[in-house]
Recover the amino acids of this structure.
């Protein structure tokens, strides 16, 4: 039983990365009906920007003898990196997708893949192929609760992820911008005629998705502090699977499916076979999609409210 | 007018054919380096490249390579294999067919050395892998050699060390099933450990696949199995993640590694989590003497950090190739014949005194040499702990 709870906690942490990244895929699809395949690499860029900000802040704190406690550095790092990465997202939309808005969907998908490669190799060119260690800002505390081992990092990761997801939900449900996004998701041809600027909403959506990806990137770097320019590929693709599983365009679905994906991966690895983990895990997901081709919350036809 | 032009062209063509640069070209020996400059283990590629640069410096300082009284200039061609098996085979083919190298040093990791070795053997080009410990690299391949000990030797060394040092009876193994080196070594270790402690004494034999970052489900199972020690023959980027996550999940027993830990990057990425851990390797930089010390000092001065085992082994491999080329006594200029001659000379080397220890070669092209157990000190340095000879 303890073992089960231990796996459950591991899965909760693992799933929160997928959920945060999947949100970006889903929101963009909701608005523009395209999958931003560069999203996984924006996650990577977010982690690297976080690395830069954290290093700079730590150096600043050491230099000026400024009494910045480490947890505050981490909070600031997350916020600043989210802010900066949102511009990367907007830039990707402006350069990569806006000129192709009327083009066939396949062109946009290919653009996404190319931007992803540019981000990876650009990083490789700037920082080199060496792995980077993310600074350990908070000292790891290990708590043993009745045989189940939890660390302060794990708790923080899950809590921060949930807070961000709730904040996004509130933003979409309660603000005017959120309302504009929902309207755009309803119909991006008619709504602009009513005076809602499509370009602004598209930028906003990319900014939000990228900010969440950046947060995921930094939380990921806190848990797995070895960064390389290609971390975005695998997790980007898997989060994309989560977005499909949750139902294209559904925010709620992306969160749930992200966690579900984490659970399936961890439990298959724990109880069935760690070497065949992905094979079994993704076969299960394929099976779910056979019975629910539109995912959990997706609609067969797109003329419905999705966000 | 036309005739005059033709004449000029004819003179030019003749001049080109007889020009000294054509002659000079045949006096140059090309040696290929097949290394992971980018990809998963770039530090390994860097170490290989630096060792080759230093070797080339020595050759140039001596005015070239002396083969049977003729001085040859040496050119080192570095080809990146992106630490991928398919790219390693491609890099080997390119070095052999396009760059026309006489011999190849590298690739380093077994997952790349095995496919590249096949290419080298098929094309009849001598290849020596400094760092690949998997038996398949040289097996049934007369053109392929290596500069280090093999996994069937390293596995028992680690098993014996754990048994003698700690007296443990239950061990766990965590390894990458998609990579030749960890997979091979994990299996060899399991066999050796069960020979020592009886069947079933490897209480957890868990795996993952390359690029995984989360090992929590495997580690939870390992902790639950009651293992007294964890053996994980992984590369440095994974070592950092595995060791940290094991500690975060409450694993307090020792974690032991293999020669793939011996990179200058291991401690940088892993930090304090790795202090006090042991691994088996080819040499220990701290406390070295003689030619080994000389190499380390020179490398440190030039590149600003202590060379890891890859650097030292690449150096030895290049010196072995150099010895073989010198031993041929004469190069014909016919690449095919010369490659054959170098291969024969390599196979004839019976003893070699390298900076990673004295070695003797078996008929298969594998050296017999001592392993070293290294402890990562509280300062993060690789300390010599004890030596294990076959």
């Amino acid at each position: 039983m303890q073992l089960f709870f231990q796996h459950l906690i591991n899965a909760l942490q693992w799933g929160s990365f997928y959920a945060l990244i999947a949100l970006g895929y889903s929101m963009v699809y909701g608005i523009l009906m395209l999958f931003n395949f560069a999203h996984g690499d924006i996650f990577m860029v977010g982690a690297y920007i976080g690395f830069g900000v954290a290093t700079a802040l730590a150096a600043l704190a050491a230099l000026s003898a400024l009494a910045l406690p480490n947890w505050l550095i981490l909070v600031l790092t997350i916020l600043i990196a989210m802010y900066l990465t949102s511009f990367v997202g907007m830039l990707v939309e402006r350069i990569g997708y806006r000129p192709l808005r009327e083009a066939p969907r396949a062109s946009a998908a290919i653009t996404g893949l190319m931007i992803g490669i540019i981000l990876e190799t650009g990083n490789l060119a700037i920082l080199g192929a060496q792995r980077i260690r993310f600074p350990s800002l908070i000292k790891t505390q290990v708590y043993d609760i009745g045989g189940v081992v939890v660390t302060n990092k794990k708790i923080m990761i899950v809590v921060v992820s949930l807070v961000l997801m709730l904040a996004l939900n509130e933003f979409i449900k309660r603000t005017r911008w959120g309302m504009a996004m929902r309207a755009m998701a309803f119909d991006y041809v008619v709504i602009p005629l009513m005076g809602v600027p499509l370009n602004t909403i598209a930028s906003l959506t990319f900014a939000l998705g990228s900010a969440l990806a950046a947060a995921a990137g930094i939380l990921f770097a806190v848990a797995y502090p070895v960064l390389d320019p290609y971390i975005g590929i695998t997790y980007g693709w898997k989060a994309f699977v989560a977005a499909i599983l949750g139902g294209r365009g559904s925010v709620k679905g992306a969160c749930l499916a992200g966690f579900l994906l984490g659970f399936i991966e961890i439990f298959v690895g724990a109880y069935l076979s760690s070497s065949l983990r992905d094979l079994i895990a993704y076969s299960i997901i394929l099976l779910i999609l056979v019975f629910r081709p539109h995912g959990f919350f997706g609609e067969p036809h797109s003329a419905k409210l999705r966000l | 007018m036309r005739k005059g032009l033709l004449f000029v062209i004819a003179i030019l063509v003749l001049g080109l054919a007889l020009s000294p640069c054509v002659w000079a070209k045949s006096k140059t020996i090309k040696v290929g380096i097949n290394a992971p400059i980018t990809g998963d283990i770039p530090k390994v590629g860097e170490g290989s490249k630096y060792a080759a640069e230093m070797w080339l410096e020595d050759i140039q300082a001596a005015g070239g390579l002396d083969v049977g009284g003729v001085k040859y200039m040496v050119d080192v061609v570095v080809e990146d294999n992106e630490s991928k098996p398919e790219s390693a085979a491609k890099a080997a083919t390119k070095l052999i067919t396009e760059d026309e190298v006489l011999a190849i040093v590298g690739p380093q990791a077994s997952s790349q050395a095995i496919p590249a070795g096949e290419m080298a053997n098929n094309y009849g080009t001598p290849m020596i892998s400094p760092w690949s410990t998997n038996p398949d690299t040289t097996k049934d391949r007369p053109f392929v050699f290596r500069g280090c000990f093999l996994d069937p030797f390293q596995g028992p060394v680690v098993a014996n060390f754990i048994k003698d040092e700690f007296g443990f009876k239950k061990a766990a193994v965590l390894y990458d099933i998609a990579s030749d080196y960890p997979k091979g070594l994990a299996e060899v270790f399991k066999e050796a450990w069960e020979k020592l402690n009886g069947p079933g004494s490897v209480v957890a034999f868990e795996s993952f696949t390359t690029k995984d970052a989360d090992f929590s489900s495997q580690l939870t199972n390992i902790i639950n199995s009651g293992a007294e020690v964890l053996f994980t023959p992984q590369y440095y980027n994974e070592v950092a993640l595995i060791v940290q996550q094991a500690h975060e999940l409450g694993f307090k027993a020792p974690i032991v590694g293999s020669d793939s830990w011996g990179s200058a990057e291991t401690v940088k990425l892993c930090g304090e989590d790795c202090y006090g851990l042991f691994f088996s390797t080819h040499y220990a930089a701290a406390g070295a003497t003689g030619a080994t010390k000389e190499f380390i000092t020179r490398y440190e001065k030039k590149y600003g950090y202590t060379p890891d085992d890859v650097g030292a082994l690449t150096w030895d491999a290049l010196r072995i190739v150099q010895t073989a080329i010198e031993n041929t006594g004469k190069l014909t200029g016919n690449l095919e014949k010369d490659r054959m001659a170098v291969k024969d000379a390599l196979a004839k080397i019976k003893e070699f005194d390298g900076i990673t220890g004295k070695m003797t070669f078996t008929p298969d092209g594998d050296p017999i040499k001592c392993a070293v157990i290294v402890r990562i000190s509280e300062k993060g340095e690789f300390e010599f702990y004890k030596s294990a000879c076959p």
